[in-house]
Amino acid sequence: MKKEQKLSNRKILALLLALALMLTFAAACGNSMDDTPGTVSAPVNIAALNGPTGMGMVKLMDMADKYNITTYQAPTDIAPKLISGEVDVAALPSNMAAVLYNKTQGQIVAISPVVLGVLYVLGNDVELQDVKELKGKTIYASGQGGTPEYVLQKVLETAGLDPQKDVTIKWLANHADVNQKLLSEKGAIAMLPEPFVSTALAAGGDSVKQLFDLNELWNEATGQELPMGVLVARRGFVSDRPADLEVLLKDYAESVDFVNSNDGAGALIVEKGFIGKEAIAKSAISRCKMVLFTGTNAGEGADILRTFNQTLYDMEPASVGGVLPDEELYYTGAE
């Protein structure tokens, strides 16, 4: 009887040891998983513009198990898909966050700026040191009615110039036309975004030079960086899938870091169809100022967007959808 009891006790002890080992193994696995990129409950549908606004997510394009990413040529191609729910997250021009927020009665959330700057003034055989020297000049540009127009207006007004009287702005159909004008006319001055800036500098040789960085001038005028691209999401996605959003932001931040610091980023940008030539892509990266504000920095990103929306609203309310968005537009991190 005592022998049977001893055997039983040994069996119980063996079971307890096995259970302890299983719990230890499970905890170790759990800790290991915390150090690797997480999974999502279902693939996230993402839309991005085919330019600097979308370039920061190139590494995400190789994560097909997590993200379905489609690039588009115009924000008007993306907006209906975001509103309908076909798309969960999108990278768009910054003012579109406010426009869509107003259009959907608050069903869009601005997650973070993803591109700062990208707008520059270039000259072909032109030497200017101060924005005031643009008085009496002609500026070729594209993007009338959009962010480029309001940025140029703010910069000129801050320099004491009246955009309607002191300069002549010739609005062309697209950036390629502006680039052609700049390269073909000695004395031409043009406002261009990346990657057209790098293309013009490469093609123009010593004649074409960067005159002004509009991000720096916007910062001087407003006290904040110039957000040219923003990551937005449907409010339903943010509220229903907060864990998936955090996984996305972690992966996105790593992708942005890769693009900004890795020599192989230019080749990947070309491979994904954002820019045609690797040399141009490498040149454009530093001037594209790709970013992502997450975690404790989320509030900083919200401040940049808040100042941007207020500035545009003061110039033209229609530029942000007619009404200045309230605080519900801005994502300041996971609850």
Pick out the low-confidence regions.
23-36
Task: Report the count of strand segments.
Answer: 10
At CATH level 2, the architecture of the largest domain is 3-Layer(aba) Sandwich
CATH superfamily of the largest domain: Periplasmic binding protein-like II
Largest sheet: 5 strands, mixed
| Total DSSP helices | 13
Write up this protein:
The protein is of the alpha/beta class. The chain has 2 domains: 44-116 and 225-329, Periplasmic binding protein-like II (D-Maltodextrin-Binding Protein, domain 2); 119-221, D-Maltodextrin-Binding Protein, domain 2 (3-Layer(aba) Sandwich), CATH 3.40.190.10. 47% of the residues lie in helices and 18% in strands. The chain has 13 helices and 10 strands. It has helices spanning 2-34, 52-55, 75-84, 95-103, 147-158, 175-184, 196-204, 214-222, 235-240, 242-261, 265-271, 278-288, 298-315, and strands at 44-49, 67-72, 89-93, 108-116, 119-124, 138-142, 168-172, 189-193, 208-213, 227-234. It has a 5-stranded mixed sheet with strand order 2-1-3-10-4. α2 links the parallel β1 and β2. α7 (196-204) crosses α12 and α11 packs across α12. The longest helix is centred in the N-terminal third of the chain and has 33 residues, at 2-34. The chain starts with a helix and ends in a 20-residue tail after the last helix. Mean pLDDT is 91; it is low at 23-36.
